[in-house]
């Protein structure tokens, strides 16, 4: 593996895997550009050396192939603005247009490929797809920390098609790993992990490993209701992964055995539909009526979580406490962000990561009141499990 800062990109086409999986609103405007902004130093260094850049990323989780909603064309204008130069776009990632545009790329130019996940081969880690991508450039830079926990074609499989001397991490990856290492080796207790959001089946498994590290685990957002149901609570139509209920039950038991306190939201803000104009009410999280769903933690939970956070010395946070994109369901995430900021002001070390979590912290004005903001959510949590992430291992191999 080569070193990014000493690598000379002059005359080279750098194929750079970035994580441009940014939140978009209904008009496809970017609501938080942290992940794009983070990659600018990497892109600028390659261009300043006299190289050219081919950017590749995923956006969301498209299931049906090419879909306008998930097109990376939505980020082209903003990226051009941030770079101060026009970025070209290929409406494909390995097809004729991508190949032609990549071949014609001149030093100083930037090309963005269409969403890699429009090909099912990407998530399957298909070697043929990875090799076709690899042919577009002559040096591979992985700067997608947020996706480093995925063993996909563009993050893990592709690296083998480049000589070790032409495989590198970009500045995002380097910075993220350095900061994560710092936390990994210096986590003062009480250590509180906050897990929320909506990727229940992905992140519930990570909780088990956190049991060896954390003294307290706060579970909020859509993640909470699978646990509430595992304790025989009534959750109405709240988000729930039924095939993870047994896992949740086991985790509750293991936490007790290990002396780790799992904090679930005792109450919730409930809604009659998943919409900004829903009718809302509040309820204990284990007595949510049929036809209603929990879309935020309630006031009792906010108070309880705040107390736990104020007593913490290390805080790791991934996943919002509610559907913060809608005003009616922002309060819990705001309250937790405030408590994390207050704990940080009192000397705790706090690390917040994940596309939506970072968007929330930015939106509520707390980004500079926490110790570190990571572009990765699941990736950051898996890094803390102590295992090498596939996207990192492949570049180092
Ligand atoms: N109670 C809930 N029900 C449904 N979705 C929720 C709930 N709470 C939070 N969410 C959603 O979770 C999403 C973020 O989850 P996730 O992707 O896991 O976080 P991150 O991007 O920070 O890693 C947000 O879009 C938010 O609206
Ligand atoms: O947004 C991401 O992760 P995150 O929600 O854990 O922050 C990454 O872009 C990975 O996306 P994925 O979880 O669909 O593989």
From TrEMBL:
Keyword flag NADP: no
GO cellular component, one term: cytosol
UniProt GO MF annotations: ADP binding; ATP binding; phosphoglycerate kinase activity
Gene Ontology terms: biological process: gluconeogenesis; glycolytic process
InterPro entries assigned to the protein according to its UniProt record, in alphabetical order: Phosphoglycerate_kinase, Phosphoglycerate_kinase_N, Phosphoglycerate_kinase_sf
Main localisation: cytoplasm
Enzyme Commission (EC) number: 2.7.2.3
Gene3D superfamilies tied to this protein: Phosphoglycerate kinase, N-terminal domain
Alphabetically ordered keywords of this record: ATP-binding, Cytoplasm, Glycolysis, Kinase, Nucleotide-binding, Transferase
Catalytic activity: (2R)-3-phosphoglycerate + ATP = (2R)-3-phospho-glyceroyl phosphate + ADP
Cell location: Cytoplasm
Pathway: Carbohydrate degradation; glycolysis; pyruvate from D-glyceraldehyde 3-phosphate: step 2/5
Residues annotated to bind (2R)-3-phosphoglycerate: 35, 117, 150
Residues holding substrate: 19-21, 35, 58-61, 117, 150
Pfam families noted in UniProt: PGK
Record-listed ATP binding positions: 203, 294, 325, 354-357
HAMAP family: Phosphoglyc_kinase
Family membership noted in the UniProt record: Belongs to the phosphoglycerate kinase family.
Subunit details: Monomer.
Name the UniProt record assigns to this protein: Phosphoglycerate kinase
Organism: Flaviaesturariibacter aridisoli
Organism ancestry: Bacteria, Pseudomonadati, Bacteroidota, Chitinophagia, Chitinophagales
């Amino acid at each position: 593996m080569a070193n990014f800062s000493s690598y000379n990109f002059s005359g080279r086409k750098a194929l750079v895997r970035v994580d441009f999986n940014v939140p978009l609103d209904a008009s496809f405007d970017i609501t938080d550009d942290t992940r794009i902004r983070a990659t600018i130093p990497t892109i600028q260094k390659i261009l300043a050396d006299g190289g050219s850049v081919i950017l590749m990323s995923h956006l969301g989780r498209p299931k049906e192939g090419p879909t306008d909603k998930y097109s990376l064309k939505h980020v082209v204008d903003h990226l051009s603005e941030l770079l101060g130069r026009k970025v070209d776009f290929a409406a494909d990632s390995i097809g004729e247009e991508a190949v032609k545009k990549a071949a014609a790329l001149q030093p100083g130019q930037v090309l963005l490929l269409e969403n890699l996940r429009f090909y099912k081969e990407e998530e399957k880690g298909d070697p043929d797809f990875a090799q076709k991508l690899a042919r577009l450039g002559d040096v591979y830079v992985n700067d997608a920390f947020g996706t480093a926990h995925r063993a996909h074609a563009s993050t893990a499989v592709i690296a083998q098609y480049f000589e070790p001397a032409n495989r590198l991490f970009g500045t995002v990856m380097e910075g993220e790993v350095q900061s994560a290492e710092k936390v990994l080796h210096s986590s003062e207790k009480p250590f509180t992990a906050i897990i929320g959001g909506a990727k229940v089946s992905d992140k519930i498994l990570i909780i088990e490993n956190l049991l060896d590290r954390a003294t307290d685990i706060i579970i909020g957002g859509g993640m909470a209701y699978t646990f509430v149901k595992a304790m025989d609570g009534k959750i109405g139509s709240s988000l729930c992964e039924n095939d993870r209920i047994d896992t949740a039950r086991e985790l509750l038991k293991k936490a007790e055995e290990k002396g780790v306190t799992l904090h679930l939201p005792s109450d919730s803000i409930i809604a009659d539909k998943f919409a900004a104009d829903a009718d809302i009410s509040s309820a204990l999280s284990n007595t949510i009526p049929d036809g209603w769903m929990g879309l935020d933690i309630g006031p009792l939970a906010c108070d309880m979580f705040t107390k736990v956070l104020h007593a913490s010395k290390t805080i790791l946070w991934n996943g919002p406490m509610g559907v913060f994109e809608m005003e009616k369901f922002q309060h819990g995430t705001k309250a937790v962000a405030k408590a994390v900021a207050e704990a940080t002001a009192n000397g705790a070390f706090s690390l917040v990561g994940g596309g939506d979590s970072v968007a929330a912290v930015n939106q509520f004005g707390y980004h500079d009141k926490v110790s570190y903001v990571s572009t990765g959510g699941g990736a950051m949590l898996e890094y803390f499990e102590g295992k090498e992430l596939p996207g990192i291992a492949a570049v180092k191999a």
